[in-house]
Amino acid sequence: MEEKKITPQARFERDKCxxxxxxxxxxxxxDILEHLANQSNKQGYIKRLIRKDMESAKITFEERCILTGIxxxxxxxxxxxxxALSLRNKHTEAIAKAKEAIETLKSxxxxx
Length: 112
Description:
By secondary structure, the protein is mostly helical. The protein folds into two domains: 8-57; 61-111. It contains five helices and no strands. It has helices at residues 8-16, 30-37, 42-57, 61-88, 92-111. Helix 4 (61-88) packs antiparallel against helix 5. The chain is elongated, with a radius of gyration of 27 Å.
């Protein structure tokens, strides 16, 4: 039996490409289908939209610094409140919730 030779293009597509498809319903997605039909380069158009969305989801270094400062200040204020309440042995439920919130904020801060 003779082996089929794979073309360089087919090898490239097999090794380097991923195909993604979506199913659109002609009636409910008619607006999307019409809009796509007007695009000369559908793949490029969709990739630009995705990259634009990805870029808008990023926060800048300056925004990250501001958020970090706000979170750190909130953690410090909550820790001081927990300490004050603990000294008075009051509001144990509030203390537990505050400690939980502090841990959540620390987790968020760490991910930044």
